[in-house]
Design brief:
This protein is α+β, with helices and mostly antiparallel strands and 194 residues long. Helices cover 46% and strands 11% of the residues. The mean pLDDT is 93.
Length: 194
């Protein structure tokens, strides 16, 4: 168990089962229509999973967020911090502002939707501030970031020091939100907190 960020394909996004996202998809499209925006219907199908292919995204939120919260307070406004990490659904298209849907997200009574194009520059700003190494995995389809930060990053931090290496938990969350936004945009799929 635990809290995960995972990508969602069309079957689950439009599905009607209890653990699927059909109610959120329907409520989001209704709100987009109210705002005179097109519905979000072009969600890719899940493909056969191939490790390292970049077709899926899955990471577990286990490290402490204390250092990451402090990093956000230093480099981002309160509103920017909320955009970066205050969502329960990330979509691959631009939204002028977050959309709060009256649908239970599993962790609170509403679902907050933000656009990956708004999250990406904020995550990039933090990545630049801590000099996140280029070695950080770009595809995160099976806890790749978690594994990398638990093993390779610890070794790398002894030889390639910098701001990123001073708090590996904070660096993990910078990479997590950066890669989630990149994945959502690249694949055209939602990434959800589950």
């Amino acid at each position: 168990m635990g809290v995960y960020l995972v990508s969602v394909g069309a079957e689950e996004w439009f599905g009607e089962e209890e653990d699927e996202w059909g109610e959120v998809a329907s409520a989001l499209n209704a709100e987009l229509g109210r705002r005179s925006l097109p519905p979000y219907e072009d969600v890719p199908l899940e493909t056969d999973f191939v490790a390292g292919s970049g077709q899926a995204f899955e990471e577990k939120l286990t490290p402490s967020m204390t250092g990451f919260d402090a990093l956000c307070q230093t480099h981002l406004s309160h509103e920017e911090s909320e955009t970066l990490c205050g969502w329960s659904v990330l979509v691959p298209f631009s939204l002028d502002e977050e959309i709060c849907l009256p649908v239970d997200s599993g962790y609170c009574e509403s679902t907050v939707v933000v656009g990956a194009p708004q999250v990406l520059p904020l995550a990039e700003k933090l990545a630049a501030a801590i000099e996140l190494p280029r070695d950080t995995p770009e595809t995160c389809d099976n806890l790749d970031l978690s594994t990398w930060f638990r093993h390779q990053a610890r070794d790398l931090a002894t030889t390639r020091t910098g701001l990123w290496s001073q708090d590996l938990d904070a660096a993990f969350y910078v990479a997590l939100f950066l890669r989630a936004a990149q994945h959502s945009i690249r694949r055209g799929c939602p990434v959800v907190l589950t």
